[in-house]
Amino acid sequence: MTKTSARSVLLVIGGGIAAYKTLELIRLLKGRGIGVRAILTRAGEQFVTPLSVAALTGEKVYSDLFSLTDEAEMGHIELSRAADLVVVAPATADLMARMAQGLANDLAATALLATDKPVLIAPAMNVRMWLHPATQRNLARLLADGVRVIGPDEGDMACGEFGPGRMAEPAAIAVAIDEALAPAEGMKLLTGDAPRPLRGRKVLITAGPTREAIDPVRYISNHSSGKQGYALAAAAVALGAEVVLVSGPVSLPIPPGAQMVPVESAAQMMAAVSRELPADIAIFTAAVADWRVAQRADEKIKKGGKAPPTLTLAENPDILKTVATLKSGRPKLVVGFAAETERVVAHAQEKLTRKGADLIIANDVSPEGGVFGGDRNTVHLVSKAGVEDWPNLSKAEVARRLMDRLAGTLAETA
Ligand code: C5P
Questions:
Q1: Residue 159 designated active-site
Q2: Which one from 55, 158, 159, 313 is the annotated catalytic residue?
Q3: pLDDT tens string 110-136
Q4: Is the shortest distance between the CB of 320 and ligand 1 below 6 Å?
Q5: How much is the pTM?
Q6: Nearest Cα to 167, choosing from 175, 177, 155, 178?
Q7: Cβ-contact 282, 334 below 8 angstroms
Q8: Which of 165, 224, 239, 216 is nearest to 407 (CA)?
């Protein structure tokens, strides 16, 4: 390999449908000059063949703990230590459980137990399996043991369900591997032993839509999914922050480690934000309804009147502007989002000034972009310093990069 490669990974391929994406990962790593030697678990062999893995890695594929020929060529201990990094992709619930327990019941588990190198896992499983307390317990154990984790992403799953559990995209895993191999540079991973630049800092995040009641059963709202805000909360937790997530109604799991304050209306969101101040960083991702119904009916409005009812609207408080223009107790960094359908950057620049934010993250939410409710985002960072365009990324990746950036800025200003 790899022996001559400057950098190399031992790739453990677990038994999940996402294993097919691992083939693409191998291609990307080889393209970056990273040597790859693979262990394919028995379950992994059900999803990808040893032949395709061998063809792509250009190396023998290992799978059997008690193979005399394999041991003669390279013992399992040496195999676990020859590479600079061990990557598990997909990391199934079963592999994570065995890692957390320290089992050594096949070659993959044995190599993971025997290695003296850093380990990065890319979990992939059904959403219920991911959210199960047992898996979350194993995840916490692995993080505490210093294992690095990338993903999982959220989205439609092969099993037909929706939610967190999809393996991170190969391109994102490749970037994480690159960074793990050169730990001094770039983004820090969600890792038990990573620096926690936001330790001792409070990050306040608004997310989701608000609901403005018309009467006890009807309301005005919008399509915000809350995904970007929830991803930011998870990324802030990973950097060690105390995170308060003030959220309108969404159907997302609470990011582990974040404190959730559920609200419905803009007025409730404003009140909750005020209660939670002071904070070091405030990020306003919520799609706050611009108006509320001026006179909410106490009883359900009946049909059959002479004419349909007329709704008189009243303006909602601008939470971002209120916080950004506070005379005292203003968070050191105030970040807003600008969802636009045209002239995206121009509108964001106008918003930066009008609302008094330090940074506006502009994104195109025109229907063809699929940002609302989708898993990916193309953002532009608009500040007094200028405009920075980011490539199309998963919302999780946008969140990680943005929190990293904010942590850096906060450290400079402190
Ligand atoms: O003016 P617009 O709604 O486009 O501004 C978007 C930004 O302002 C977002 O960061 C949003 O969370 C915030 N906002 C707010 N309160 C409002 C309206 C918007 O915090 N009432």
A1: yes
A2: 159
A3: 999 999 999 999 999 999 999 899 998
A4: yes
A5: 0.59
A6: 155
A7: yes
A8: 239
